[in-house]
Amino acid sequence: MDTDLIERARRGDESAFASLALEMHDRLHTVAHGILRDPDHAQDALQQALVATWRELPRLRDPQRFQAWTFRILVNICRTEARRARRWVPTVLPEDVSEPRAARDLEAVADRDQLERAFRRLSVDHRAVVVLHHYLGLRPPEIAEALGIPVGTVGSRLHQALRSLRAAIEADQRAPQAVQPREVA
Questions:
Q1: Is the residue at 184 inside a domain?
Q2: Distances (CA, A) of 69 to 40, 102, 114, 170, 182
Q3: Which domain holds residue 43?
Q4: Is the pLDDT of residue 91 over 90?
């Protein structure tokens, strides 16, 4: 990140902050959507995070940590948003369910749905580590800085999250399928 731009934004330069916000928008949205699993809630969290970042920016001591600091603000807002909105909204349905789909397309949707259900079972803290690592490609030290936790905790949460995802998927696969009603002749 351009430290000069960050410094100008810290001093109240709105256009500098707008440039920073544009530069980080996609990554922040990826994190918010990855944690919240809902596009509307993710957009709300992103907007709240940008407002909070602008408001708190003069207090940022080290411009080199701007990105990690902003991720931390966003993750904290996602925690609050997740507690407020505990309803499940399906997000992996085919675009147009009225068209017949090939069997493999439906299987792909079912696989994504199964992964989505498993991911929703994770805590926000576990989702945050998975999203930052697997979606953004951040390394454990970068994640630790962004979340304000020790590197060992990052590794532990990542390990636990992946183990929980596997267990949830395996449990769903073992669950008995719904019994289809028989036709009466």
A1: no
A2: 23, 45, 33, 36, 58
A3: 1-85
A4: no
